Amino acid sequence: MLVYLTAECCGYPISIFFIVVNEFCERFSYYGMRAVLVLYFRYFLLWDDDLATSIYHAFVALCYLTPILGAIIADSWLGKFKTIIYLSIVYAIGQVTMAISTIHDITDANRDGTPDNFTFHIALSMLGLILIALGTGGIKPCVAAFGGDQFQEHQSRQLNTFFSVFYLCINAGSLLSTLITPVLRAQECGIHTQQQCYPLAFGVPAVLMVISLVVFIAGSGMYVKTDPEGNIMWSVCKCIGFAIKNRFRHRSSSYPKREHWMDWANEKYDKLLIAQIKMVLKVLFLYIPLPMFWTLFDQKVSICHFSGLLGGLPDQMQTVNPILILTLVPIMDRLIFPLIQKCGLNFSPLKRMTVGMLFAAMAFVSAALVQIEIDKTLPNFPSSSESQLKVVNTYSTTLNVTISPNEHLLIESFGVQLHTSKHTYSTISCMFVNGYTADLNITNLDSIEPSATTNYTLVNQGKRDFVLRHGEQWCEFSRKFGFGASYTFLIPSTVFSDDCESITEVEDMKPNSVHMALQIPQYFLITTGEVMFSVTGLQFSYSQAPKNMKSVLQAGWLCTNAVGNIIVLIVAELGKLPKQWAEYLLFASLLVAVSIIFSIMAYFYTYIDPAEIEAQVRKEQGLEPEEMEKETLEMEEKDEDQKNEQGVKQTKI
Ligand SMILES: N[C@@H](Cc1ccccc1)C(=O)N[C@@H](Cc1ccccc1)C(=O)O
């Protein structure tokens, strides 16, 4: 048996330093690139909104599916260390390819500032994204498990702290990159023409990925490296297949029942392998309800985006989560969990995860309450059997308008009756009606002909200045806009003689009166839920996995997220409830139901020490650990089908 003597600092293996720095840089690289990806699709490749978001979601989905591949490579073939190195190289190449694809000068032969050959840029960026997805997803289950492998048996307390620090590094990396890369993109750069600097915004994440790889290699001499014990995944599949087949063959009641269905593989497969498969299957079974948490977690971003209470910009939303994680993880670890323990309560990992789910459900209840308040401020929209009409009076006196058969509107001079517009809550829109006798130019708008109306134009919140021009004449006026509001400006013929004073402002839709602070509890609740659920899930997946399947179980954990994302997409396709708050309550109730199911499953789960079980099986087999390892290897190398087929027939029970 290999015994590693690892250098320690404050009770922690020094190699951990390289792993957490590597994770920080990798997450910086990933989230930084993601922060500008949709912008690149929209404004560089000039894709429409639908295409840009579809490709973005497809890329994210691919990143969640590749962990399985990485885990199989690591646990069955290369080992975690080599898998991380090779896939990080693929990842770094992907990031560099992506950065190169954003250099417009490469194909801008006519030097007009736009690429001449979009196919080249699209092909290169798609290749880059595929390599990135392969790299980031592939190394994901290996890095956390490899970090865990660095700890010795006496360092179990430090091992738990490691997963929290690991999570902190993920969020520190994502926070910094989400703040920095959009700023880099806003810079101007270029060889022939100056454009928004996508090469810098994608180049910095590429550099960070190279640094991540270099840091990981730098720690090479200090790591505890465990080699894979043959093609374990293949052995697992064959063993499970055989157990099912054998069970089916012996389905008659004349055969005595066995304690576990995997015991039907006893005739052919090593007891240790069977014990390890049982451990993994038990945990994977427990994971079945978990995707529901991620479904709500991923929906949360949409809530913030559409309600617009914190500014409505998804870019800014992305920083709130990591900021809260950086605050809450230390508070939980240093204060809340020790306090709960001091009160004599056993706050086991599965209980923490259940409570985490309940926190996420509470976040949705809070979102529903805020939505109800928001709905109160909304105007009544016409139902499917009604329509709305807006009449603007630019005549000099009050007018009577009759709509046959018997409806009457009284409209003052420069007044407006009713309105019709689509409601966009997270924005402010305004529209101009030109009552002046000639064409008018308004800052940032096309010119308006006399008696014509502009479309609603989106403007930023706060005080805005407008300049009206006609030939040599001009005047300016300012207005303050509230969020979610919609305005119409009526411009009379006297507009230049009274210096814009006579412009009438009509509030078509009231500004949002729900305070943005109401959004804070939602954020706080969902992130508290994430800390309890996700950090604990990471630790739990490592601690309950047999030594040779640590990456596989990490990948299983990440799969709960992938399935959660798929549910989000299905829900989006299936359509929405008529009331947003009802939808939030539905999600909250579903998660409460799922957490009850999970808590029942957790109640029947017995925590195990995989190393202890493995040692026990070895002892039962009368093998020393070294002998056992040798035996496992030999077993896998033999052609098992030929060797054991006869044995099975002989040992019919
Ligand atoms: N808190 C998230 C990171 C995040 C950053 C910005 C907006 C939202 C979220 C986090 O820590 N993610 C981890 C863990 C994870 C979570 C879900 C699926 C895969 C991994 C990460 O490794 O990115």
TrEMBL record:
Compartments reported by the entry: Apical cell membrane; Cell membrane; Membrane
Membrane topology: Multi-pass membrane protein
The species this protein was found in: Cyprinus carpio
GO molecular function: symporter activity
UniProt similarity note: Belongs to the major facilitator superfamily. Proton-dependent oligopeptide transporter (POT/PTR) (TC 2.A.17) family.
Function of the molecule: Electrogenic proton-coupled amino-acid transporter that transports oligopeptides of 2 to 4 amino acids with a preference for dipeptides. Transports neutral and monovalently charged peptides with a proton to peptide stoichiometry of 1:1 or 2:1. Primarily responsible for the absorption of dietary di- and tripeptides from the small intestinal lumen. Mediates transepithelial transport of muramyl and N-formylated bacterial dipeptides contributing to recognition of pathogenic bacteria by the mucosal immune system.
Protein's name in the database: Solute carrier family 15 member 1
One GO term describing the cellular component: apical plasma membrane
One of the Pfam families matching this protein, by short name: PTR2
Transmembrane spans: 28-46, 58-78, 84-106, 118-139, 159-185, 197-219, 279-297, 352-372, 552-572, 584-608
